[in-house]
Design goal:
Layout lengths: L4 H8 L19 H13 L7 E5 L5 H8 L4 E6 L2 H14 L4 E4 L11 E4 L10 H12 L2 E7 L3 H10 L4 E12 L9 E11 L1
Helix pairs in contact: 1-2, 2-3
The protein binds S-adenosyl-L-homocysteine (SAH).
């Protein structure tokens, strides 16, 4: 085994968040704890080590770098935001990793992978922004691990079924959103998110 889950979480806690988050892009970083658990489960299922892993909406690189630490063969992260990618590139460099980050709108991504990992926009700001990510993930890879708002699990399951896919696993987590944008009324808010594995 390459790294222990706890060590993965400790290392991922060093990945910086967004410097100047953009609400319209729903820029909320995955917590190190959720990222480590999700990726470790994927690793245990044989979906990371030696595989080509693609991270759609990679932000500052949390999931990409976690996949790399778990021994992925190749990791490519895509995001539309130049500033987030600059943070990801710098962080990858400081980790000594060879993760490749590319700037593109998810709709334009034309690359295949063994496994897609993603924490896409939840579709709260732009309605159904999550559907574009799900569609792209399903047309790019046989295996997908994706984070969604727990209340949208039915929508995610239906979207997968429509494409002849199945949600074979889901796990709910508490996700703490710090006060990030002016429209946030609380210091922090906890919501339920669900990690799904689509095959
Ligand atoms: N995956 C990262 C970031 C999650 S936030 C993490 O787990 O920490 C969602 C990310 O999706 C942001 O980085 C945002 O810039 C990106 N994003 C939103 N809309 C996008 C689009 N249309 N194309 C590509 N990336 C997009």
């Amino acid at each position: 085994m390459r790294v222990k889950k706890k060590d993965l979480e400790i290392a991922l806690a060093k990945v910086p968040g967004f410097k100047d988050p953009d609400a319209s892009l729903e820029q909320y970083p995955t917590s190190a704890a959720i990222a480590a658990d999700m990726l470790f489960n994927a690793y245990s299922n044989g979906d990371i080590e030696g595989m080509k892993v693609m991270d759609l909406g990679c932000g500052t690189g949390m999931l990409s770098l976690g996949a790399w630490m778990l021994g992925a063969g190749t990791v490519v992260g895509y995001d539309v935001d130049t500033n987030a990618l600059a943070v990801a590139v710098e962080c990858a460099r400081s980790f000594g990793s060879d993760v490749v980050f590319r700037e593109a709108d998810v709709g334009e991504v034309d690359e295949k992978a063994d496994t897609v990992v993603m924490n896409p926009p939840f579709g709260c700001q732009a309605r159904r922004a999550d559907r574009v990510f799900l569609d792209k993930a399903m047309s790019s890879a046989d295996c997908i691990y994706s984070i969604h708002k727990a209340e949208t699990l039915e929508f995610v399951t239906e979207t997968a079924t429509e494409r002849g896919r199945r949600v074979i696993y889901n796990k709910v987590y508490k996700y703490e959103i710090p006060h990030t944008f002016s429209f946030h009324r609380d210091v922090k808010r906890t919501i339920d998110v669900v990690v799904v594995n689509i095959r």
